[in-house]
Design brief:
Structural class: alpha/beta
CATH superfamily of the largest domain: Type I PLP-dependent aspartate aminotransferase-like (Major domain)
Distance between the termini: 51 Å
CATH topology of the largest domain: Aspartate Aminotransferase, domain 2
Number of strands: 12
Shape: globular
Radius of gyration: 20 Å
Protein name: Histidinol-phosphate aminotransferase
Keywords: Amino-acid biosynthesis, Aminotransferase, Histidine biosynthesis, Pyridoxal phosphate, Transferase
Largest sheet: 7 strands, mixed
Organism: Halorhabdus tiamatea SARL4B
Enzyme class: transferase
EC number: 2.6.1.9
CATH class of the largest domain: Alpha Beta
Strand content: 15-25%
Amino acid sequence: MDTRDLSGQTIYRAGRGIEETARELGVDPAELIKLSSNENALGPSPKAVDAIREHAETLHSYPKASHADLGDALAERWDVDPAQIWLANGGDGAMDYLARAMLEPGDAVLVPDPDFTYHAMSVRYHHGEVHTYPLAEDDGFAQSPDRVLAAYDGERMVYLTSPHNPTGSTVSLDEIEAIAERTGEETLVVVDEAYGEFNDAPSAVELLENRDDVAVVRTFSKAYGLAGLRLGYAITPRAWADAYDRINTPFAASEIACRAGLAALEDDEHVEAITDLVEWSREYYHDELDAKTYESGGNFVLVAVGDASRVAQESKERGVIVRDCSSFGLPEHIRVTCGTREETKRAVETINEVC
């Protein structure tokens, strides 16, 4: 007996961790720094860590109360109704929920190219078709209304990413609204704001006050440093009051994840520290790298290095793990996460030597 035909499914290949890279190179893991997965350079929110310890003995209980409490807290944070908050197992889980709520088999979704792999993967998992709109290096990889709408053909969903992974480009509220205005009444514009805390641009959540054709995806993985817990959420139109209960996996956000999320929301000091560090690190990359960099609203910078595979490999051999963007369709670029000050300086020195 075989599975259904999965040949059309893309495999998500996460960046290799320090331990496995150390084994590959035969070195002490302490000699390596990992700047390939856009993780929080300062680690998890300390308040979240305390909450995890405090609630570890409640793991025998389903997270009904904590789930509701986190939904209420996020609703207050974003000034929306609690029913508009769809908690999920990571931001990717929130994308799955939106696809589950929106797509009939064969419906099409428009995504940028290059793009974060999981947008298209989620569509295909839910028997949808993936269409793309190209981003161009010569205009800063902008997701402009003209570029998006030139490719639009009535798709059920349109993905925008702000800041965009892997390029770092952002989309303004005016541009998002222009796209929503000029797409069909049955098209949902999904704005992935996984890196939203790292720039000062207003969130597309503001548009939900007057629109029912925009949804926003957010995560606790980046600014709050909870990537290992897998906690994210979608903020959906107010009219979708009962849809979440119909498509939600039972308690997809765990008790520990919800408790950690509640604590992290109160840890403004940690968020301020990492956003300040990211701002410094981005500027250092832009100023000190002997290669072209691109303006970024995320906790990473895209760098044009010529032969990304070679630069990534030789940087790794020198102890600095960066992301070869060939898998994004950018074989001449690497993506470098904003590290600590020490890590950022070492990354610049290493990349400059290799280039």
